[in-house]
Structures are given as C-alpha cells and as structure tokens.
Amino acid sequence: MKDRLRIGAFACVTALAVILLTGCAREEPVEIETTEDLLEAPAPPEPPDEERAAEIVAGVTHAVADDVTIIDQAAAGDTLTIEATIPAHEDVLSYAAATPGEGADVEQRIEWVTVRWNMAAERPEDITWAERLQFAEEEPIGEDEAVEVARELRDAWFPDVPPEMVMQPPHRMNRPVWAITWRGETEGDVLTGDQVAVQVSAVTGLPIAYSQRVAAQRPSPDEVELTRDEAIELVREALVEEGEEGADGMPLVARLVLSAPAHPEGGPAWLVRGTGRRAALGAPVDAMTGEVITAANDGEGRRTTADGGNDSND
C-alpha cells in the first residue's frame, strides 16, 4: 500500500509541477458544463420495487420469488445491491453438523444472500451465499465436481464474448473451498479483461460466491499507443523518484489488459509489477496516455493492487 501511495503522490506532484510551469492558457475559452448539458446526460436506472428485487434474487438463486425476503437494497450508478434471505438449500448442513459438538442439531431454514445486479445489462455482477461456508470432518467434493458447478453458473450468466475464456488451474483455498476462474485471453499473452470467478464448497458442493466482469472496452492490441518497455520504464522512473531501494535495476514485467479494472474508464492498461518477493510492487499504466494509475486516480476510490485489480472482488 505504501509503495502504491508513493507512486500516486509522485503522479500528483508531477501533474502540479506541469501546471505551475506552463501556467494557464488565458486565450483559450473555458468550457462550463451547463444545466442543459447535465439534463441531457443519461440518468442511471431507477432502483426496482421490492417485487422486482425479489424476482432478481429468485432468478439467480433458483428460489421462488414469493419465498424471498428483501432485507435491503441500494443503487449506485448501474449497480443494484440487494440483501435478502431465501429458503436454505437442502444440502446446507444443520448448525450442529457444521459445528460438531456445539449445541443441538438445529436445521438451518433460511440463508442470507447478497446480489450485486447490473441494471443496465440485466445480469449479475456478484452473488454471495455467505452462510454456505461450512466446515465438517468430511470434504467429499473433488475438483471435477466443483468445476462442473462453476461451469453451470458461468454458462447461465456470462454473455457470449469474442475471445476465448480460458480456465485457470482450479485450486483449494486455505478453507474448504474450491476456487475456479476463467479469463478472456487473446493473441499473445494479452488479457481482454473478461473474467468469471466462482467459489464452491468442498463440503456440500454448493456455490458460495460467484463474480463476473465483462470487458467495458474491446480495443485491438494494435490500437495501443504505449509499448511494454515504455510502460515498464514509466513505473521504474516513479519508483526511483520515490526512493525505492534498487528500483533502477529491479526486474519488472508487464502484461497488457485491454479493459483493465483499475482503468477509470475500463480502458487498456499495462499491468507492471516486480518479480519474486517484490511481485506486489508496481502499478497499472494507461496504455494510451502513459499515466500511472493509482488509488488517487482509478476513478472509483478503490485501492489499486499491483495486478491492476482492486480490493472489491475483481
């Protein structure tokens, strides 16, 4: 975090220095956004009523809409977040089975679900069944079964996109959960920015979390202005400027993402990072303008990570 903030500070100071040195071009008229301009801008969709919210939750969880209880909902831009309860899946363990030796064998009748829904695209962004993270002596769900569960969710909700979605090697997390991810890949080692990530319980085989990101832009790699080497040098210069020890000779690698989550407009960015123990050191670089993207300018107020994602489930 400290390193990325220092890069952000460097970018801000540099921008301020340019302003002070060049001054203001007074002969240029200043464009002021008028009330008419604001009125013409498309308004975000209105949040739905509770009946529609229940239908959304039912659609993504396979519950019956009448059995869905809406606890809360809030809209931010095109994204609607719904907190609700649904009848517990029959495979969810009882409280005693999930916590052996603690209390009576009480059936879990409802479960909490959180849905983040894209109102413009009419599809989910994230679904979380928090109470399905359960622990037991036996964890019978293997990799193949977990992948099949994840694939069914992906096929149901992820739209057809031009690039191939390539599955990454599934892995067991440090809890009884299988993590399965698909990424959009195109020519060379270029990523499109499309991604599906699913977590499946190794105890019950039920999905615990589902998230997807559909690329906001689809430029051709040939349209990118900045080369890999130029992006690496921009990050290196920033690290040297902020006093990072050994930055001038530190190995840096970069990968192009055509629609990077850290980009303010979802545009192309080079994800530049260190290697080995310094893999967390680095920053995304706008592949069109050469701007180093940090938490101060990623457009959404989220802490940018070295891989170009953020702390909000990318």
Report on this structure:
This protein is 23% helix and 26% strand. It is built from six helices and twelve strands. The strands form two sheets. Strands 1, 2, 3, 4, 5, 6, 7, 8 and 9 form a nine-stranded antiparallel β-sheet that branches. It has a three-stranded antiparallel β-sheet with strand order 10-11-12. Mean pLDDT is 82; it is low at 1-31 and 298-314.
Break the fold down into its secondary structure elements and pairings.
Layout (H helix, E strand, L loop, with lengths): L1 H21 L12 H6 L9 H12 L7 E8 L2 E9 L7 H4 L11 E9 L4 E6 L14 H15 L6 E4 L3 E2 L4 E9 L5 E11 L5 E7 L14 H14 L10 E6 L11 E6 L7 E5 L28
Antiparallel strand pairs: 1-2, 2-3, 3-4, 4-9, 5-7, 6-7, 7-8, 8-9, 10-11, 11-12
Helix pairs in contact: 1-6
Quick recap:
By secondary structure, this protein is an alpha+beta fold.
How many helix segments? 6
- The whole-number mean of residue pLDDT values reads 82
- Give the overall silhouette: globular
Strand content: 25-35%
Separation, N- and C-terminal Cα atoms: 17 Å
Low-pLDDT segments, ≥5 res: 1-31, 298-314
Relative helix content: 10-25%
Rg, rounded, reads 23 Å
Instruction: Give the strand tally.
Output: 12
Largest sheet: 9 strands, antiparallel
Q: Report the order of strands and helices.
A: HHHEEHEEHEEEEEHEEE
Structural class: alpha+beta
